[in-house]
Every structure is written in C-alpha cells, then in structure tokens.
Amino acid sequence: MKIISIMLLAITTFQLQAFVTVGDGNCDYVLIQKALDEGATELRVVNNKTYEENLILDDIDISISGGYQTCELAVQGVADGPNSVISGALNPAQPVISITGAQQQSIVSFDQLTLSDGSEGIYSNSADVTINVDDTVITGNTGSGLYCTGGSSLVSITGASEISQNIFDGSGGGLFVSNLCQVDVYSPVLISENEVSMGGGVYADQGAVVNLHGAVIENNQASAAGGGIYIADQGTVLTSTQSQVLGNLAVTDTNFGGGIFAIGGSNISFVGGLIQGNHSDFDGGGLYLATGAQVNLHGVSLQDNSALHHGGAFIASDAGTTLTLTQTSISQNEAPGNGVGDIIFGATVNVENSLIYQNMTTNESFGLFLLFGGDSNLNLNYVTITNNTIPASNEVISVNGSLISALSSIIHNEGHPVFNATNNPILNVNCAIVNEDQSFPADQTVMVTDPMFVDPSNDDYHLQANSPAIDYCADEVSLNVEYPGDIDGQLRGYDVPGVDNGGIYDLGADEYDNDLIFESGFEIN
User: To pair with 326 at 20 to 30 A between CA atoms, which of 14, 219, 271, 272?
Assistant: First the structure.
C-alpha cells in the first residue's frame, strides 16, 4: 500500500510540474533525447554544457527551450543566460533535429537554442507539423539551416533568431522550402552569411510559400543563382512589411541574380523595404526574372545593385515574365556591361509612379534601359527618369524591335537622346516632358523643356510650384489600381488653383500638392 502511494505521489508530482529539466547538476535528465524517449513534452535545457546529440521528434507535441544557467533556475523558469547549444558533431551527416510523422497534427517549439554542426539545423520531411522557432540561432551546418518539404508543414521564425554561416554545395543556405511547405519569417530575424550553389539566403520551389515580415536577407552568397533568394516552380515569396535583401552575391561569371532569382512561374510580392547593394558577376544585380516569373515591387528602394553584364538593377527575360514596379525608387545601380534595366525575349516590365535616377552604365553600345526581342514590352506611367550617368551620345532607352509606352512621364537626361530605335519598334509616347524630341516619331506628343525639380543636386525630384509638368495632362493613366497615388502616396488629379496647362494630372513620379503650403500658413496664423 505504501509503495502504491509513493508511485501515485510521483506520478501526481510529474503531472503538476508539466516539464523536465535537462543538463548537468540536479536536473532530471542529462541527455535531451532520453527525456524525449521517456515521454516528456516540455524540456528546459540548461546551458552549462554542449549537447552533442542528433534529436529525432516523431509525431509528438514538444517544447524545447534553453537559456537556463542552472537546473534550479530552469525549475523557476528563469532563462536569462546564453542559448543552450545542441551540436550534431558526433554524427554530422544527420540533422541536428529531425521532425517526422504525419499521423497527427503536431506542434513543435524551440526557444533560446543554438543548433550547429549537423547536415541541417532543423529538418522536416513530409511531416504534419507546426514548427515555432524563437530566439534561436542555426549556424555552422553543412546543409540548410531549416529544411522543410512536403506534408502540411507550417513554420514560424520569430524574435532574435538568426540563420547564418551554413556553407555547402547545394540549395537554400538559410531556408530550403519546398513542396507546399509554408514558412513565416518575422522581424528582426536575420538570414545571413550562408554560402551555397542556389539560394544563399532562401530557396523556395514546388508551391512552397515564404512570407517575410520585416526580415533581413543579408550577405549571403550563391555560386550558381540567387545570392539572396532563389524561387522556382510555382514557389511564392511574399513580403508584408519592410523586409530587406542586402549585400548578397552571385559570384561566378555565369551566375544570375545577386539579390533575387525567380523563374518557372514563381511569384514574388515585395511591399516596402530595400533591395540594396546586391551584386552578380554576370546578369541581374538586384533581380533576375525568367520563364514566366511574376514579380511585384511596391514602395521598394531598388538601390546600389550591380552586375558585370546585363541588368544592374534588374533583367526580365522570356515571354510570360512580368515585373511590375509601383511607387518605387530605382537609384545608384550600375551595369558596366549593359543596361541597368534589361527587358528581353518577350518579357514585360510595368513601371508606375516611380523615380529612376543616378544609375550608371558605361557600355558605349547601349543605353540605360535595353529592350530586345519582338514582344518585349516596357510601360512607363507617371515615371521620372533623370540625372543618370550614360556614355557620351548614348540614349536613355535602347529599343530593338520591341514595344514601349511612356505616358504622363518625364524623361529628362540632358545631353542624351531619349531613344535609339531599331528594327521597327512600336513607340507610344504621350503627354510627356523630355530633354529632346529628335529621337521620337513625328506623331508623339511631347514637350521639350526643363521640368523644374525642387533640388536635383540633392536628389529632390518633387516639382517646383511653377513647374510646367503641373496640371499638364487631361487624362489619367493607370496600370495598377491596387496602389493609387504618386511616389509619395498622394492621389493624382489635384487641380492647382491658377494653373492652366491643359489638364489636372501632373507628369512624372510626383503629383504636386500645395495644400502643404496653405496648411503651414494656417498654422502660423
């Protein structure tokens, strides 16, 4: 009877505690896997040792948290120390943590851990699982930091998590996401300094979805394609708030897409944030898009990217490929070999309410933008192109047998023809201010004059109060109704009192609104 009472007390105590501690000292367990094998569902892992284990989580709900400095503090729930380290060094050909099983919908959580020295940090294959990763560092593995494919897998990465320095000859240094897996990455998570063949920071394909919520993809490297992000085969990358793709590299002379590489019907929607300082040793410093990729950038700064060959800022190639830029700034990109923006072999690029300035090309054969191929198409609506560095006498836009529409725009690069048109392209330019009109067909509606920017020497390309671009167009044009308004978000069609230039819609990226002047006066009075 006494033995039964003791057993019942032990069982009751375990149920009330609802967690076990792991570590050297007075902890419940010395090894993490032992605690898992004996049915523990919440593990508090002390950071007083390195756990050289390759963990297997099969169809279980589990929470593993670290950062506890002693067993006693783990009991108290005080995790105020460095991460607890789990190393796969004893069996580096296996993941540090493997997640399997599809018999039930499992929930697995990791907090304040460092996962290193395995083939992958976290590996989930065909599991029916929700994975929560918080304040966790995944580094120094010989495969992807997080590998997720198949099943009904949902992954959330939050807090001060970092996926870095995973180096191998494969795909997806930070994240490998495939076959319908979904991964959400939240600010301030950092994916950096990973080095692979394709997708240094992120690789996504086969219907996988990666949602970036303010995350940073920085200083990753690919030897084949996609220094920062590689997306293919119906994969999707969505960004909701101010994510950044910074300083990523595509490092061989046959490589594509320093920042982002997208092919095969993939989709990217990038809202806000930066694509900056990325480089390709071949094509597409910022972006390389091909074979039906659909990419939308809204409110993005596409800045200081470079490529040694085509497309310092971007290159779009092949029929069915579409790049749409709205309320976006394209500046300080460079392509010594060819154009800063190239649209070739039937691709379409739509640019609206955007500003293109201080970009540079040094190739004496082509202009700032290159259109090549019969069905290649560039549409410019409410766009300002100015103050770019182009070789002497070269044009702003080289058009070879393609289609271009420039409506309600300003193309004003002093000393350079706007177009060099060959092989019977279709040019539709209406209601525009340009710096010359000799390169235009006779039936185009343009005005050669100074658009009168506020302070172009300091990159302020808003319109002065007496600019001829104000209220110049009678008709509104729009490609994208989802994001109305000029580059500052001000609605089009503000009719400035006392200005009669023939319409109510301003030219270029800026819609002049002198309500601010009146508002200041009212405040003073």
Answer: 219
